Amino acid sequence: GDSYGSVKEKGLAQWKLEQAQIVTEMQGSMSAEDRECCDVLYFRRSADDHAHSEDNSTTDHAQLEATIAELKHNQANMMKLLKEQNETNLALREYITKSQLYTTKSE
Questions:
Q1: Which of 3, 30, 51, 53 pairs as cysteine with 34 (C-beta 3.0–4.6 A)?
Q2: How would you write the chain as a 3-class SS string?
Q3: How many domains does the chain contain in total?
Q4: Which domain of life does the UniProt lineage start with (predicted)?
Q5: Which domain holds residue 33?
Q6: 40 and 79, same structural domain?
């Protein structure tokens, strides 16, 4: 018999087909701009195979919030690293300047 995986695949293929048909029907009565917008949305949705199983906006919103939080966290880390690097560079520059002064004095 069919494994759960292949049943799931068939279900997904069927769902995508139905979505495509709905989109095609909708496009018949749409302006060019609306159609373009719909295409973008549809392709973005179908790019995510789990879109149909988690088909509610609160999940999408939560995922978006999580992504934003992660990006902000990464940005904060980057800023911290840049600041540390900058401080290191300044210290190094000071050290080089002092050692150059020292060597010129001793010559």
A1: 30
A2: CCCHHHHHHHHHHHHHHHHHHHHHHHHHCCCHHHHHHHHHHHHHHHHCCCCCCCCCHHHHHHHHHHHHHHHHHHHHHHHHHHHHHHHHHHHHHHHHHHHHHHHHHHC
A3: 2
A4: Eukaryota
A5: 1-55
A6: no
Cα separation, 44 vs 15, in Å, equals: 15
Q: Are residues 51 and 87 in the same domain?
A: no
The answer to whether 46 and 19 have CB atoms below 8 angstroms apart is yes
Q: pLDDT band at 106, cuts 50/70/90?
A: low
User: 44 and 25 in one domain?
Assistant: yes
Using one digit for the tens of pLDDT, what is the confidence trace for 31-86?
666 666 666 655 555 555 555 555 556 778 888 888 889 999 999 999 999 999 99
> Please, are residues 76 and 70 in contact by the beta-carbon 8 Å criterion?
no
